[in-house]
Amino acid sequence: MCLFCDMLEGKIPMDVVRETGQSVAFRDINPQAPTHVLVIPRRHVENLGALAEYPEELADVVALGASVAEEEGLEAGFRMVANTGELAGQTVFHAHLHVLGGRRMAWPPG
Ligand code: AMP
Ligand code: ZN
Q1: Does the pLDDT value for residue 110 go beyond 90?
Q2: How many A from CA of 4 to the centre of ligand 1?
């Protein structure tokens, strides 16, 4: 059972921003910045690194994230984040890229 697979199958609603044949971008339910969009591959793999086995799909996720950032007017700066593993804060084990922007970002991250 995977939350994002259930969303892709329409069992749970998602606030879709933009999609391609291989990926979907939708708003995070608990936004951490004025713009907080998640970009996921339609294929279920555990994390973004594992998606490198499918280079076209990995590129599609990253390109969709960049398109969303542009559409959301984040050219002054935004962050793409892929929490990987429990210690890094990953809670959904279906690959996803966070696109965060609309405020100044701190570094190093928490
Ligand atoms: P991570 O903690 O990196 O695995 O990211 C999972 C993200 O999924 C979190 O930022 C959650 O707020 C988000 N999330 C969980 N459930 C939903 C949902 N139903 N719709 C949209 N985003 C969700
Ligand atoms: Zn999944």
Answers
A1: no
A2: 9
